[in-house]
Design goal:
By secondary structure, the protein is mainly α. It is 77% helix and 0% strand. The N terminus is likely disordered.
Length: 164
């Protein structure tokens, strides 16, 4: 596979990063009212970060995801590249769905099950990205790490709020 020279296609980079950030923005807009109300009322573990941290972290992760997808997109067309981008879109949809399940529908157990599937989808995407163009796979590592943390947080919140 060829290396990406220079910046490749700036329009494609803007598209992929913009697409990912837009998904995060829409998700945030649809769930933001639950943060100061329903989510604030939940019992949380000691390792729960302050609410202000989530916006900057997720923004950076969406930017990294978009850059990774762009890097894969810039590689020569192949069945592997197609599979990698399909898995990318699947995990992005699951990411969006997790926010809806937890924050909009208040289904803590359902969100825990769904984030487990999301974690596997991210791992599959990351593995495929590594096969297509390894720097793209590496850009997915912080995302998998954060979703691993979010899974642990979701599990702890579930345990502390079983009666909700």
């Amino acid at each position: 596979m060829h290396e990406i020279s220079g910046f490749g296609s700036p329009a494609a980079l803007i598209f992929w990063v913009g697409f990912c950030v837009a998904i995060g923005l829409i998700s945030g807009l649809l769930t933001r009212t639950a943060i100061p109300s329903w989510y604030a009322s939940l019992r949380k573990p000691s390792f729960n970060p302050p609410n202000w941290i989530f916006g900057p972290v997720w923004t950076m992760l969406y930017i990294l995801m978009g850059m990774a997808a762009w890097m894969v997109w810039m590689q020569p067309a192949s069945q592997l590249r197609t599979y990698a981008l399909i898995w990318f879109l699947i995990q992005l949809a699951l990411n969006f769905l997790w926010s809806m399940i937890l924050f909009r529908w208040h289904a803590i157990a359902g969100a825990l099950g769904e984030i487990s599937i999301l974690w596997l989808a991210i791992l599959a995407t990351m593995t495929l990205f590594w096969e297509v163009y390894s720097p793209a796979g590496w850009l997915m590592v912080p995302y998998l790490a954060w979703v691993s943390f979010a899974t642990a947080l979701n599990l702890a919140i579930f345990r502390l709020n079983r009666n909700r």
